[in-house]
Amino acid sequence: MAVQVPLWHHYLRAIRSRWASRAQDYQRAEDVLLMVLEGVHARDPRFLVDYSRDLEAAQFALRSSEDPVDVEVPLRVDAEALLSEEPGAGRTTDGPLSCRLGVPREAAGLEPWMTEDVFTASPDGSAKCCGHIVPSKVLHVLKDLLVAAIVHCKHHGLIAPGSLNANSLKEEEELHLSLLVSSGWRTIRFNVVPVVRRKHRVPALEDAQRAPGFPEGSLRRIISQEVALVPASAQLWRVSTDYVLTRLLSALDSLPGHRLDSLSILDRINHENWRDGGQSPGLTFDHLKTVLLWASVLFPAPEDWAELQGAVYRLLVVLLCCLATRNLPHFLHPEHNLLPDAGLDLSALYQRVEGFASQPEASLRIHVTHLGRSPPPRISHGVKALLQLPASDPAYWATAYFDVLLDKFQVFHIQDKDRVSAMQSIFRKTKALGGEDS
Question: Which residues span the domain enclosing 286?
Answer without folding.
Answer: 255-430
